[in-house]
Amino acid sequence: MAISPPSAAASPEAFLASARVDPAVYELRPDYRAMLLAVDGLVPGPSDEGTDALLRAAEKAAVDAVGSSAPEQLPHIAAWREAYRSFGAKPQRTRNSLEALVRRAVGPGLPRVNRLTDVYNAISVLHQIPLGGEDLTAYDGAPRLIRATGTEAFDTTAGGEDVVEHPDAGEVVWCDDAGVTCRRWNWRQTRRTQLSDQTLTAFFILDALDPMSDEALVAAADDLVARLSLSTPTLRVVQRLLRAGAA
Predict the structure, then answer these.
(1) Which of 40, 113, 217, 244 shows the smallest number of beta carbons within 10 Å?
(2) What are the beta bridge partners of residue 154?
(3) Greatest CA span in the chain, whole angstroms?
(4) Per-residue pLDDT tens for 125-173?
(5) Residue 21 and residue 68: Cα distance in Å, rounded?
(6) What is the DSSP code (8-state) at residue 182?
(7) With contact defined as beta carbons under 8 Å apart, do 43 and 97 qualify?
(8) C-beta of residue 142 within 8 angstroms of C-beta of residue 5
(9) pLDDT tens digits, residue range 186-233?
(10) Distance between CA atoms of 211 and 201, rounded to whole angstroms?
(11) Please, what is the Cα angle at 183 between 177 and 188, to 5 degrees?
(12) Is residue 91 reached through a cis peptide bond, with omega within 30 degrees of 0 on the bond before it?
């Protein structure tokens, strides 16, 4: 008898243990690594002075990093542009989440959304890494990164209306049993798992390609946990690194 993957009601340890990256994704980018964090005991809420200060620091860091060049010339952004091209996406039209945030940071400024989203957006820019955060309790089954068939459901909005879209065949997507949770690797998240002012348990994904080192990836994860722990010293954190060839 087949064993069903853990649901969001499972322990954080079981949830992360069930996560996987399909070999077809590693065939595109053997250098891909994902640091997964399940974080419980969060203190959610609206944006505040602390997150505003952190975002302002990230905006300054982005301006300093870009300098007189262009955001797409930053090494990790350039690597992600190549990754998008590998499955047929046009990176100038659908920018990876890191590039989108850096462009906001050096332009109109980073958005102020809520406490949890503000923290992970700031860490993304400060450490130059695509980083997504979701409500773990909204998941249905195991998180997995696959190449889509094109039939999977993606719950989103368009023109102010709720719509269900479908990824392109071959597109790299994160999904669970209910459908796509993030399209084009780290481009756009579904509404269903969005962090909110009520989120107590979150799932974070930090995406790395060469030239980002494992040490830099771990440092970004550690900084995220440290920032979240400022409001919750007893935060419970479970983490797992996914990479090609690892069990």
Answers:
(1) 244
(2) 165
(3) 60
(4) 999 999 999 999 999 999 999 999 999 999 998 888 889 999 999 999 9
(5) 37
(6) E
(7) no
(8) yes
(9) 999 999 999 998 999 999 999 999 999 999 999 999 999 999 999 888
(10) 31
(11) 115
(12) no
How many CB atoms within 10 Å of residue 200?
A: 15
The stretch 45-67 carries a mean pLDDT of 97
Q: What is the pLDDT of residues 97-131, one digit of tens each?
A: 999 999 999 999 999 999 999 999 999 999 999 99
Query: The whole model's pTM is what?
Result: 0.94
Q: Kindly report the CA angle at 222 between 96 and 17, in degrees rounded to 5?
A: 75
Residue pair 131/97 in contact (Cβ under 8 Å)? The answer is yes
DSSP string, 217-239: HHHHHHHHHHHHHTT-TT-EEEE
170: tokens are 């071959």
Rounded Cα distance between 145 and 163, Å, is 22
